[in-house]
Design a protein that fits this description.
By secondary structure, this protein is an all-alpha fold. The chain has two helices and no strands. The N and C termini lie far apart (92 Å). The relative contact order is 0.06.
Length: 63
């Protein structure tokens, strides 16, 4: 029965820790947009715009 006196305070600490982490996540707005990340795996990453290249001169070609 002495193990119960150790396990109950440990369980209470885990519950308090879990609640603290949950409220921190809510406060830091972790749960604001749940759909965005769910849909992000369906689409390719943002494509980068091609860099503007300078016009090639005829002198650059070896032919």
């Amino acid at each position: 029965m002495s193990i119960i006196s150790v396990l109950i305070p440990i369980a209470v600490l885990f519950v308090i820790l879990g609640l603290a982490i949950f409220f921190w996540a809510v406060k830091s707005r972790q749960f604001d947009d749940l759909d965005k990340e769910a849909f992000s795996i369906l689409f390719d990453e943002k494509q980068q715009k091609p860099e503007a290249t300078s016009p090639k001169k005829d002198d650059d070609h070896p032919l």
